[in-house]
C-alpha cells in the first residue's frame, strides 16, 4: 500500500450550528477523500455539541467528553473557551485513539493539550500525523490574544502536568508534515523548521454551490429594501473580525452613499464584542442600516443567499491567516474590500481582484474603509471588474478537488517515511 487509506481527522470541535473555517476544510476534503477511495472519519470533543455519534454528508463523527483543567471556572467561562481557543483535555478521546482500528494517519487540526493527545497516540501506534495550522498560531494582535485568556484569568490551572504527559510542546516538532493555510505562517514555519516538511496549502471553495443564490428573497425575509446598496461581512462576531470598524465608518459612508446598508453574518464568539457593535450603532443613529444575523450552518442555503443579496463584500479583520470567506465572495461574483493583513496579502491582488484598506485609519483617510466602500458604490464598472477577476482566480486556483489532490500527496509522503 503506497498511501494511507484510513484517515482520522481530529479538530478541537466540529459544530454544525457554529460553523467555522476548520469545519469547512475538514468536511470538504473528507467528502473528496471518500470519493477517491479513502476512508475518512472525524474524532473530536463534545465542545458545543454533546452528541456522541453522528455524521456530516456521509462522514462519520464521534465526539468525546472533555474538561478544562482549571479550578474556579464558571459555566460562562467554559462556554467562552468552547467557542474559541479553549485548552481542553479528553481522557476518553485519548483512550479511543489508542484503541482505534484501522487507522493509517492522524490529521490534527489543533494544538495545545489536544494536539499532544494525537501526538502521544500516533507515536505509540507508530503511524504518522500531520498538523494543519488554520490560523491563530502567529501574528495575533496582543489585545486579541488577551481576550482568549479572559475566562481563565482568575482560575488556577492544574493541567500543565497533562500537557507534559502527552508532549503538547512537541506537537509541531514530531509531526510528519506541517500544513499552513496562511502564507505568513508558512514562511515562519519554514524558518523555524528548515529540515521539516512544511507545506502551504490554502483553503478552497465550492464554486458550484456558491454560484447561485436567492438574493432578493433573502432581502425580503430580513427586511432589507431592494434599493439599498448592501455591504456584507461574513465571519465570527469577534474582535479579530473587526466588524466594529464598519459601524464606525457607516455615518461617513451614508453621507456619500445614502442607500448604504450593512449586513453582519456570523456566530457570536465574543458576546461582549457583539454588545459593543449594537451599542455603537444605536449611539451613532445607524441601527436601521445594520442587520446582524448570528450565523447559518454551512449547508444552509441562507448562507449562499446572503452573499447573493449583497452588492459588495467587506472583510476588515485585524488579522486573517487566509480568508476563506473571500473565496466564497468571489465564487458569488462579489467585489471584495479587505484589510491588508496576514494571508489576505497573498490572496488578493490590490485593484485587480479586490481593494485593500489599512485597518485602524480614520473614515476620511484615502486608504480607509469608507473610501473603498464609497468607491465601489459609485462605480459599477469597478465592481464588475473586481468581481469577475476574483471569480476567475477562485476557479483557476482554489477548487476543493485541487486542494484534496495536493493533500493526498502530503499524506502519501508522510506515510512513506514512517515505520509501520
Overview of this protein structure:
Helices cover 42% and strands 16% of the residues. The chain has two domains: 6-204 and 399-416, Rossmann fold; 207-397, 3-Layer(aba) Sandwich (Rossmann fold). The protein is α/β, with parallel strands linked by helices and 420 residues long. The strands form three sheets. The protein has an eight-stranded mixed beta sheet, sandwiched between helices.
Using brief descriptors, characterize the structure shown.
420 residues, alpha/beta, Rossmann fold, 2 domains, 8-stranded mixed beta sheet, 42% helix
Secondary-structure blueprint of this entry?
Blueprint: E1 6-10, H1 21-35, E2 39-45, E3 53-56, E4 59-64, E5 70-71, H2 75-83, H3 91-99, E6 105-108, H4 112-125, E7 129-133, H5 142-149, E8 156-157, H6 160-166, E9 177-180, H7 183-192, E10 198-200, H8 207-210, H9 215-221, E11 229-234, H10 243-256, E12 260-265, H11 271-284, E13 290-293, H12 301-309, E14 312-315, H13 324-331, E15 336-339, H14 344-347, E16 355-357, H15 369-378, H16 380-397, H17 400-416
Give a short overview.
The chain has helices at 21-35, 75-83, 91-99, 112-125, 142-149, 160-166, 183-192, 207-210, 215-221, 243-256, 271-284, 301-309, 324-331, 344-347, 369-378, 380-397, 400-416; strands at residues 6-10, 39-45, 53-56, 59-64, 70-71, 105-108, 129-133, 156-157, 177-180, 198-200, 229-234, 260-265, 290-293, 312-315, 336-339, 355-357. With 420 residues, the protein is α/β, with parallel strands linked by helices.
CATH superfamily of the largest domain: Glycogen Phosphorylase B
The biggest beta sheet reads: 8 strands, mixed
End-to-end Cα distance, whole Å, is 11 Å
The largest beta-sheet arranges its strands as: 3-4-2-1-6-7-9-10
Write the CATH fold name of the largest domain. Answer: Rossmann fold
Query: How many distinct domains?
Result: 2
Number of helices: 17
CATH architecture of the largest domain: 3-Layer(aba) Sandwich
Amino acid at each position: 500500500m503506497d498511501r494511507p487509506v484510513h484517515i482520522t481527522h481530529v479538530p478541537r470541535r466540529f459544530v454544525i450550528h457554529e460553523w467555522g473555517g476548520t469545519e469547512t476544510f475538514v468536511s470538504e476534503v473528507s467528502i473528496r477523500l471518500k470519493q477517491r477511495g479513502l476512508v475518512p472519519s472525524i474524532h473530536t470533543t463534545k465542545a458545543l455539541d454533546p452528541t456522541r455519534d453522528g455524521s456530516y454528508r456521509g462522514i462519520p463523527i464521534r465526539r468525546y467528553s472533555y474538561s478544562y483543567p482549571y479550578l474556579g471556572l464558571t459555566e460562562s467561562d467554559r462556554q467562552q473557551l468552547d467557542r474559541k481557543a479553549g485548552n481542553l483535555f479528553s481522557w476518553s478521546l485519548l483512550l479511543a485513539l489508542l484503541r482505534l482500528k484501522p487507522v493509517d494517519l492522524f490529521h490534527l487540526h489543533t494544538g495545545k493539550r489536544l494536539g499532544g493527545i494525537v501526538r502521544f497516540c500516533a507515536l505509540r501506534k507508530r503511524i504518522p500525523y500531520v498538523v494543519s495550522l488554520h490560523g491563530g498560531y502567529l501574528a495575533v494582535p496582543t489585545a486579541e490574544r488577551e481576550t482568549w485568556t479572559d475566562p481563565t484569568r482568575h482560575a488556577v490551572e492544574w493541567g500543565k502536568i497533562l500537557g507534559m504527559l502527552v508532549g503538547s510542546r512537541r506537537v509541531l516538532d514530531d509531526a510528519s508534515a506541517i500544513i499552513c493555510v496562511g502564507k505568513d505562517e508558512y514562511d515562519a514555519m519554514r524558518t523555524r523548521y528548515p529540515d521539516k516538511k512544511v507545506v502551504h496549502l490554502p483553503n478552497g471553495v465550492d464554486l458550484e454551490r456558491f454560484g447561485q443564490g436567492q438574493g432578493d428573497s433573502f432581502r425580503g425575509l430580513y427586511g432589507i429594501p431592494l434599493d439599498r446598496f448592501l455591504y456584507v461581512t461574513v465571519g465570527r462576531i469577534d474582535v479579530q473580525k473587526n466588524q466594529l470598524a464598519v459601524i464606525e465608518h457607516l455615518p461617513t459612508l451614508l453621507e456619500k452613499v445614502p442607500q448604504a446598508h450593512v449586513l453582519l453574518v456570523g456566530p457570536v464568539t465574543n458576546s461582549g464584542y457583539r454588545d459593543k457593535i449594537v451599542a455603537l450603532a444605536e449611539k451613532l443613529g445607524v441601527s436601521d442600516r445594520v442587520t446582524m444575523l448570528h450565523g447559518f450552518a454551512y449547508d444552509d442555503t441562507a448562507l449562499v443567499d446572503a452573499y447573493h443579496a449583497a452588492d459588495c463584500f467587506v472583510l476588515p479583520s485585524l488579522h486573517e491567516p487566509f480568508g476563506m470567506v473571500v473565496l466564497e465572495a468571489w465564487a458569488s461574483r462579489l467585489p471584495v474590500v479587505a484589510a491588508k493583513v496576514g494571508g489576505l496579502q497573498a490572496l488578493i491582488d490590490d485593484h485587480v481582484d479586490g481593494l485593500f484598506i489599512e485597518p485602524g485609519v480614520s473614515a476620511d483617510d484615502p486608504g480607509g474603509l469608507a473610501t473603498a466602500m464609497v468607491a465601489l458604490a459609485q462605480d459599477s464598472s469597478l465592481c464588475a471588474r473586481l468581481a469577475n477577476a476574483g471569480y476567475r482566480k477562485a476557479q483557476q486556483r482554489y477548487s476543493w478537488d485541487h486542494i484534496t489532490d495536493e493533500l493526498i500527496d502530503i499524506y502519501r509522503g508522510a506515510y512513506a517515511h514512517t515505520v509501520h
